[in-house]
Amino acid sequence: MSELPDVRRFKKVIAFLIEEKSKGNKFINNSIAGLRYFYHWPNPHRLNCLVGLTSCAISPDGKIFICDSFPYYQRYSVPIGASFKRSFNSLFFPHPCEACWNSIKLELNLIRSFNPEVLLGVWRRFGDSL
Questions:
Q1: Which among 40, 66, 102, 103 is least buried, having the fewest CB atoms inside 10 angstroms?
Q2: Cα–Cα distance between 103 and 84 in angstroms, integer?
Q3: Please, what sign has the CA dihedral across residues 95, 41, 56, 3?
Q4: Strand 57-58 and strand 78-79: pairing?
């Protein structure tokens, strides 16, 4: 039994979400651009990722790593030494990411790319509180 969804059913769900978002459904937080990206799953689209420059994760054993979305990420973790900053700066990706299927990271990267559709969506959602 596979843990992955059937590709046709997955695309059908994503198409439905795109349609709902286009109609103004405010309960769908993903951008339409992000949903279009997911529609192409499982075929990767290269993405310039901001995650390695802005964030990291800390494991229970006190090691840090950039992202848990690529294979064998544990091999590239480093212990937190005397300086967190120095440890963070020593992190690296072993290769450029082929794709990202994490919606939060994807949306962050779409914002970073100054995608007008995504920026407008963020403004509409949070503009009053900014």
A1: 40
A2: 27
A3: negative
A4: unpaired
List the alpha helices (DSSP H) in 23-115: 32-39, 51-54, 84-89, 103-112
pLDDT tens-digit readout, 71-94: 677 777 888 888 888 888 888 766
Of 36, 44, 47, 25, the closest CA to residue 117 belongs to 36
**Alpha carbons 122 and 130: distance in angstroms, whole number:** 10
Residue of 51, 60, 62, 61 lying closest to 84 (CA atoms): 62
Q: Residue 101: which H helix or E strand, with range?
A: none
Block residue for tokens 């779409």: 110
How many C-beta neighbours within 10 Å does residue 65 have?
A: 19
- Regarding pTM above 0.85, the answer is no
Cα first-last separation, the chain? 46
Classify residue 89 by burial, with Cβ atoms within 10 Å: 0-12, 13-18, 19+.
Answer: exposed
CA atoms within 13 A on the CB side of 64: 16
Q: What Rg do the C-alpha atoms of the chain give, in angstroms?
A: 17
